[in-house]
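Key idea: predict the complex, not the pieces.
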Amino acid sequence: MLNYAIKRLLASVFVLLGISILLFVMLRSLPGDPAAVLAGEMATEEDIVLLRQELGLDQPIYVQYGRFLNRLAHFDLGRSARTQDPVIDDIKTRLPNTLVLAVTATFLACLVGIPAGVASALKPHTWIDYLATSSALFGISMPVFWLGLMMVVVFSVMLKWLPAGGTGGIEHLIMPSLSLAAFLVAFIARMTRASMLEVLGQDYVTTARSKGLTEQAVVVRHALKNGLIPIITVIGLQFGRLLSGAVLTETVFAWPGIGRLIVDSILARDYPMVQGVILTFGLLFVLVNIIVDLLYAVIDPRIRYD
Amino acid sequence: MTKPSPTRAADSAGRRIWHKFVSNRVALVGMLVILGYVIIALAAPLLYPADPATPNLARVLKPPSATDLLGTDELGRSILGRIIWGSRVSLAIAVAVVAVGLVIGVPIGLVSGYYGGKLDFIIQRFTDVLLAFPGFLLALALIAVLGVGFTNTVTSVAISMIPQYIRLVRSCSLTVRELTYVEAARAAGTRHLKILRRHILPNVMVPIIVQTTLNLGVAILFAAGLGFLGVGIQPPSPEWGTMLGAGRIYIFKAPHVATFPGLAIFLAVLGFNLLGDGLRDALDPRFKA
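Result:
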């Protein structure tokens, strides 16, 4: 298990290196002097000269990349071209907000998606099943930003129940996390249904039933426990999509996370910030996938990675 | 005794697939929705002959009425007219995106799966890096470098789809290359390129068709997302996401401005998803409805 975890971590380092090369190349392929581009429109000539030395632009490209990596290893993502603050500081302030949003959305999605999936698997081809599967399709097709705005129209404009945006109490979190959860509910419900249908047909479920266990015990303790693996996979795989959704949801609800930060930075051509946020997203995604992989072994003891 | 001709066999297979497809009502609804959008896009000059970008400041933010069925936007332009013309923009983006994705992703995936070895290893590690990013974030990162506008929107969304095609086609061709008839072709000295074109490609077409249908919806969704954030298609072009983004500011005063373009996106994506699911059920015997 430990060996596997180390192997996975090493593979992730490889992916992160790839992302850093991609970013490095992308930012240097922008038209104009990279120092001027990275320093931003407000920078003085002196700032640009200083940054040029710092980036080592007079050095060969591999030395430049080496310096770039060295700074990354020290969590030095440069300074924002807009505010001149260290990029890492802004990310540190904003990242917890995005994580709160993503985790709440995932929790809500499980809360609705898993029971919906179980219900439709227990009663296939009934109205519950049709309702669950068709609302899943709706959830997948719904633009998250539109759903968010429609919630604002209903709950803020018409009913005046919830604030239209910003942060504060739990009431500020309700609409952003619900709108973000919608598509995930769809995926989780679909996967739970498929997984449960498969598990419910297994011999050990029949045995559990024939032992005279209650239906609830059969479903929860025997079927759902074994059906959880594909569900966790879906959550892991969809986490990336959740982060993409967060970029849009944060914009709709003026939620101060890193999603909103990247959009503002793109619009302001603040490339050091864009670079920092993209790296953070890459790191997050890679980390979540490792966690999901390791969770499999916890849920299903049959899985051995050694 | 007459032998069944290959054409007749293909005909009956085609008929069986068509029958299976049309018997799936949901898939049929999806096809009709998409057909509706295509007709609207083609007939846009007839349905709404005026220029959808011309402002009419006398009729700013009017709610839906008999004169303007879906109301007017912040510059007094008909929302219905802009949605009609916008279907051209959104469908054009979707088609261009999947075309680029297919043209680049499919050959790379075929070669990667068929040849294997070091080439496959290099291609797959590169794909790993691209797949480490969720598609929309990759498109957003590319837009940050490329800049806004139609071509850059298409390019960035298409690039975000290429790794997906590579993986899909690679995994299918890995299976197909081991089949006896491919081995026979190889043993008979058939050139690799011919094997790829004649034997492997036709056998990976089903997943490609299904994925492409679903990707058309995803492309519309991604382009609309970029437009909504203000980094995609730029105004006054009537792209649905851009319209929605502009209407967001007036959500308290005139909610209809953001509502209808969003509905247009939703229905189009839903249409492609229904169609894609239906095609999968009809074409792929492994997924029985």
